[in-house]
Amino acid sequence: MYNTRRDEAVAALWTEPCLAAKVRRLHRVVVGAYDEALRPRGLTVAQLDLLMTLLTADRDLRPADLARALQMDRSTLSRNLARLRRRGLVAGGDRPGSHLTVTAEGRRLAEDAADAWLATQRATAEMLGADGLAALDLLIRRVTTHDEEG
Hints:
Elements: H1 5-15, H2 19-38, H3 45-56, H4 63-70, H5 74-86, E1 90-92, E2 100-102, H6 104-112, H7 114-149
Antiparallel strand pairs: 1-2
Helix pairs in contact: 2-7
């Protein structure tokens, strides 16, 4: 049917639904809902995630630790940390080996965002349904296990 592996790949490109595109679509819908809810506070869900990870960590984190914990590339982390630093929400982590801290203002803003986050959390969980949430948990376990094995 196919003359070469490349022919097969080209045919698949036109006929198979792209898994990355599906994941990106889900990402845009879910992240968009959280970002919209947090916008009045000047936060994105990615920035709130950074703040909450730092606030709930059981030890001091350096930027490299935070990137690993969130499976985030360093350039994205650096951009978000720079925005949080400029607003006075996070301090430190700007020299090799130095740890990040959430300022009192950062803690206050994270706490202020809690109601908007919780409302979005509940609406998103309802939209996904119990089966969607279970599938999401399963997928996260699989890719996390795969990352740890590789």
